[in-house]
Write a structure and sequence with these properties.
With about 70 residues, this protein is of the alpha+beta class. It has three helices and two strands, in the order E-E-H-H-H. It is about 55% helix and about 25% strand.
Length: about 70
């Protein structure tokens, strides 16, 4: 497994955006969305809506994943 970020496109509120996360974070993020019965874009949009304006979306997703795995 590599620690290099992998870029994927997401659609948030009808707009396409690219997010770069390490493969381990993408895997965990997908698993969390599936466990919640949510589409990845829906969960990303929720995280996007709840983040501070000075925090990047990729960082917000990483923190979200970490918090979910600590539960």
């Amino acid at each position: 497994m590599t620690g290099r970020p992998v870029k994927h496109s997401l659609t948030l509120h009808g707009h396409r955006t690219s997010v770069s996360l390490e493969a381990a974070f993408w895997d965990a993020f997908r698993a969390i969305a599936a466990a919640r019965g949510q589409a990845l874009n829906t969960l990303a949009a929720e995280i996007d809506a709840g983040r501070d304006g000075d925090v990047g979306l990729a960082s917000a997703i990483r923190v979200f994943v970490l918090e979910q795995l600590r539960r």
